[in-house]
Amino acid sequence: MEYLNQKEQEQFSQVLEAKQIKDYTNMMFNLSQGCFNDCILDFTSSKIGEKESACLTRCADKFFKHTQRVGQRFAENNAKLMQ
User: Fold this and answer.
1) Is position 1 within any domain?
2) Contacts of residue 21, Cβ cutoff 8 Å, sequence gap at least 6
3) Residue 23: which domain range?
4) Which of 1, 7, 52, 75 is most buried, by the most CB atoms less than 10 A from its CB?
5) Is 60 in contact with 31 (CB distance < 8 Å)?
6) Rounded distance, CA 46 to CA 71, Å?
7) Residues 60/35, Cβ–Cβ less than 8 Å
8) Pfam families, per this entry (predicted)?
9) 41-70 per-position pLDDT tens digit
């Protein structure tokens, strides 16, 4: 970024921040939709059942662990490329 002037750096930072927010929003949407579809099975009650709640917890935990692991792999591969 050293080849960008101050205004270009600010614009780049704004674009990057907007992309990060969009990516985070998409990730949370995918988590919500996927876990809901997998875990919520009983629509006869307005409350989430005990089994559904446990399923949602496991699903979200698995999703975040997977996301973390993928991020670690990208970081490892980036480090190798930078050498």
Assistant:
1) no
2) none
3) 7-82
4) 52
5) yes
6) 36
7) yes
8) zf-Tim10_DDP
9) 999 999 999 999 999 999 999 999 999 999
